[in-house]
Amino acid sequence: MKFIINISSVLIFAISASLFSCNETTNGKEKPEPAGDEKSDSIAVLQPLIITDTVPNDSDDPAIWINPSDPSKSLVLGTDKDPNGGLYVFSLDGKMDSARSVRGLKRPNNVDIEYGLMLQGKKTDIAVTTERLTHKLRIYSLPEMIAIDNGGIEVYRGERAAGFRDLMGIALYKNQKGETFAIVGRKTGPTDSNYLWQYQLKDNGKGQVKATLVRKFGKYSGFKEIEAIAVDDELGYVYYSDEGRGIRKYYADPAKGNDELAFFAQQKVKEDHEGISIYKTGDSTGFILLSDQQANQFQIFPRNGIPGHPQEHPLLKIVKVAANESDGSETTAIALNGNFPRGIFVAMSDNKTFHFYKPEDILGDLIK
Predict the structure, then answer these.
(1) pLDDT for 179
(2) Does residue 139 fall inside a structural domain?
(3) Residue 360: its H or E element
(4) Could you report the per-residue pLDDT of 287-312, keeping only the tens digit for each?
(5) Nearest C-alpha neighbor of 311 from the set 36, 29, 13
(6) Which residues have a Cβ under 8 Å from the Cβ of 176 and sit 6 or more positions away?
(7) Three-state DSSP state, 1
(8) DSSP 8-class letter at 335
(9) Is it true that the peptide bond before 254 is cis, omega within 30 degrees of 0?
(10) Which residue from 105, 164, 161 is spatially nearest to 130, judged by alpha carbons?
(11) Distance from C-alpha of 154 to C-alpha of 278, rounded to nearest angstrom
């Protein structure tokens, strides 16, 4: 589906040119950041349009499924991160769809969605969540939310150290050939560029999903942990939060190698770098949104870098939100309904809910 919003190259250039002195890192080299007007203390708190029904225990991470035949019937999925947790389904009015929600999962952490995985010759949309206590990926067809993982797929096999198999982040990637991959993170791991493991997802011949390990990559500072992962299918990049340090950027395609492309957002975060989401205003334009968790705010960076420097992502704006201690977020620019004509921005809040915002309220002058 094509995105509905366009930003002129003149506007992008004007924004970018004024920000050459902002915080930016490429290949680990940090540029200085001005004191500027990005201090969050003076920023008004943005309220959500809708707050969802509560989950039973501990809301953590959302994902958005776009209904191709009727976007107004799209769904928001959210994890309940508890030993007796679940993957809950919400309509766009924030009401829980109890019939389709999945319960009894063993500490599900993050969730992501991809479209058109071929199963028995049929394109199937899927939701994948990480189940920390079993070290498994749990996979469900959309919109039915029927399990198609044959009881779950174990990952990080062979790892022995404490926490090395405790699943956290998940991002799905579909390449230009139509192949689907899961990029998986964990509670802790090695610092030798093998923190993330990437699996190709395929039909096992019986209409269930199997996973084949194709790659190990990704630097880790060793400081805290890595949870938030996001993939830009169109541009072919994967981003992840090295908490307390910054956002790391790599190619999503294993064939393009494991060199780190950028390491940005290293300053102005109060404590933890958390949820990452990508608002796409065109084939290559848009914004990367990062949760500055303990400050209850989101930092915004250009998706396509700055002119001539696609791996440079200066800070554009900071937005304070009502969502408290937000771990995860997701967004889309596709028109959904009267409440969300320019898409939706979903942020987890630590009161067992998810908050629905209008992206135009989050981005403000960046898209007006």
Answers:
(1) 98
(2) yes
(3) helix 359-363
(4) 999 999 999 999 999 999 999 999 99
(5) 29
(6) none
(7) coil
(8) -
(9) no
(10) 105
(11) 28
Quick one: pLDDT band at residue 117, thresholds 50, 70, 90? Answer: very high
Q: Which two tokens stand for residue 45?
A: 């708190």
| 105 DSSP β-pair partners | 85
Is 346 buried (19+), middle (13-18) or exposed (0-12) by CB count in 10 A?
buried
Q: How many CB atoms lie within 10 A of CB 144?
A: 11
| The residue type at 314 | P
State the DSSP string of 181-214: EEEEEESS--SSS--EEEEEEEE-SSSSEEEEEE
Q: Is there a domain that residue 65 lies in?
A: yes
pTM beyond 0.85, yes or no: yes
Go through the chain and tell me how many residues it has: 368
Task: Give the end-to-end CA distance of the chain in Å, rounded to a whole number.
Answer: 22
CA distance 110 to 133: 13
- Pull the structure tokens for residue 309: 């420097």
Q: Which two tokens stand for residue 37?
A: 């007007």
Degrees (nearest 5) of the Cα angle 243, 247, 250?
Answer: 125
Lookup: tokens for 15? 């924004």
Residue 134, burial from CB neighbour count under 10 angstroms (0-12, 13-18, 19+): middle
Question: How many domains does one find in the chain?
Answer: 1
Cβ atoms of residues 287 and 240 within 8 Å: no
Q: Is 61 exposed, middle or buried (0-12, 13-18, 19+ CB in 10 A)?
A: buried
Q: 31 lies in a domain?
A: yes
Q: Are 132 and 152 in contact (CB under 8 A)?
A: no
Domain of 39: which CATH number? Answer: 2.120.10.30
Which tokens is 342 given?
Answer: 């320019």
Amino acid found at 134: T
121 within some domain: yes
- What average pLDDT does the segment 309-321 reach? 97
Q: How far apart are CA 109 and CA 351, in angstroms?
A: 16
Query: Which residues constitute the domain of residue 188?
Result: 9-366
